[in-house]
Amino acid sequence: MDEERLAQTLHNYERKVLSVLDKESTVSEISSKSGLKDIEVMRGLQWLENKGIVKLREDVKEIVELDSNGEKYREGGLPERRFLKFVKKDTPVSEILKEAKLSNEEVSVCLGVLKGKAAIAIRKDKELMVSILPQGEKILQKESLEELFLKKKFPILLSELTDEDKFALDSLRKRKNIVKVETRKIRKAELTEFGRKLSKSGIKFEETYDRLTPAMVRDGSWANKKFRRYDVKINVPLVFGGKKQHYARFLDDVRGKFISLGFSEMFGPIVETEFWDMDALFMPQFHSARDIHAAYYVKEPKYGKLDNYIVERVKESHEIGKGTISKGWQYKFDVNKTKQLILRTQGTALSARMLASKELKIPGKYFGIARCFRPDVVDATHSADFNQVEGIVIEEGLNFRHLKGLLKMFAEEFAETDQIKITPAYFPFTEPSAELHAKHPELGWIELGGSGIFRPELVKPLLGREISVLAWGLGIDRLAMFKLGIKDIRELFSHNLDFLKDVKVV
Q1: CB of 205 within 8 A of CB of 187?
Q2: What are the two backbone dihedrals, phi and then psi, of residue 421, each rounded to the nearest 5 degrees?
């Protein structure tokens, strides 16, 4: 693009920056000369850099600035001068404090500073009495190095201070909130060879307009205005727009798919009783999974509230299989233990609650997205807290063939793979039981979850009658790894901004 056409693409910020840019200028210098704000100068410089007209660089410098008290003393003078003006012979400190309008803290500083400069004499009577000395009279006649320093234009580069300035700075830094020294990045800009050529080309950087407004069209003023040419090929800074967290978005997508398939969503508490998490699922209280190492128990409160009528029916199912052809587990059910509170270990607790709910519809299809917790060794495919997609399908006459079709559909729909294996498994609450495995392109075969048909000993105590209930619980975290192309399950909850900027969002 030639100089003339390039000049027509320049924004007004760029034009104003170019009009005041010397061989090398800081952002603050350009801002002062152009009348632009610092942020407007930076935008103009970045756009000019993209066009190859200027080159930006950053220098790390130590900067001296006035602090809160420094701003105050710059206007009203240092406390010691105000103090000294009211000192005669044997003047009470309380009188000076009142006349000079100083705080007790400032008076203490003044006494120390002026005593150190041999400007005053102090004696103790009923209260402190102060007298001015000849050196004090001299101090009143001219400004001190500290006062002259405060009148300078700040901020100042530490490297540019004279010896007298450094002495004043060291003196003031010993006092509270007068000056501060900070390390700061100083942005500088200089014209490139092309930029110098452009600035010497005689092109007039006239004001242009970025857009055609309705007002210009109505009054016809657009005909006499110059509009900026847009360069659609120019490289622009990469912008990371706001987006929903990748895993949260995936869960929303999963939720939407189940609802579109006619499923209704189930909900339940994270802090659950052993009853709904295990006992209502016909899991015996002596089962190895009930050991404290397989669940997180709540310390306080230790027990939750339950419906005694439902508890009694589940108790009888455990003990003797009442109402079914089963003999139960043949042990003494502990009613107190079933009330213990734990962190939910499986999403199947939602299904148990739904079977006992008055909201249950038959036939019906239900799903839930449940946060669950189990002690585990954390690695690329395991976590101590995880999500499950849990669901049931309830209707007369369902069998294992229906369950296999359901699992195959889930693998294809959510894991996006047709390479699946359904293998026999054991769960205390289903018979038959099966596990679903799917093949990840990089991680290989991964277990996605368990499934089966609920046993009558589970269904009848909660529902009041026997009926076919297909049940499944899938590890949605691992399904998300398939969908999002993630190799490490911990990245589902990553706080790494670089990762979050680039991660795929479904």
Answers
A1: no
A2: -135, 135
Convert the pLDDT of each residue in 11-38 to its tens digit.
888 888 888 887 668 888 888 888 889 8
* Selection from 2, 12, 3, 7 nearest residue 208 by Cα: 12
CA distance 234 to 55: 16
**Domains by residue range for the chain, with CATH:** 3-62+184-224 (1.10.10.10), 68-176 (1.10.10.10), 248-268+345-502 (3.30.930.10)
Question: Do the bridges between strand 264-265 and strand 364-373 make them parallel or antiparallel, or are there none, so unpaired?
Answer: parallel
With CA atoms as reference, report the closest residue to 158 among 36, 269, 60: 60
483, 415 contact by CB (below 8 A): yes
Total length of the chain: 506
Say if residues 157 and 150 touch (Cβ distance below 8 Å): no
Q: What residues contact residue 39 under an 8 Å CB cut-off, 6+ apart?
A: none
Please write the tens of the pLDDT for every residue from 95-142. 988 888 888 888 898 998 889 889 999 988 888 899 999 898 888 888
* Distance in angstroms between the alpha carbons of the first and the last residue of the chain: 40
